[in-house]
Design a protein that fits this description.
By secondary structure, the protein is α+β, with helices and mostly antiparallel strands. It has helices at 6-13, 17-25, 43-52; strands at 3-4, 32-34, 38-42. Helix 1 crosses helix 2.
Length: 78
């Protein structure tokens, strides 16, 4: 099993190190502390995380063509 640094993991996920730290803090991505300062992430765990993030086409919500958006310029969006 191969382990990489936080910076390398962030680059692989195309996020900042700060966002990666949030994923780790919320328990969405496991990380391993080595010694008192070193943190490493398993490449296998990154692959599992990425597979859980796949969006299925059926889950994408689209507005039917016969039901146009009712946004009016200047309207306050809440």
């Amino acid at each position: 099993m191969s382990y990489i640094t936080r910076k390398q993991a962030a680059e692989r996920l195309s996020v900042s190190v700060r966002v990666l730290d949030g994923l780790i803090a919320r328990g969405q991505l496991p990380a391993y502390k080595i010694g008192s300062k070193l943190v490493r992430i398993s490449e296998a765990d990154i692959e599992k995380y990425m597979k859980r993030q796949i969006i299925a086409p059926a889950s994408l919500k689209t507005v039917p063509a016969d039901r146009p958006c009712r946004y009016v310029p200047g309207m306050k969006v809440v």
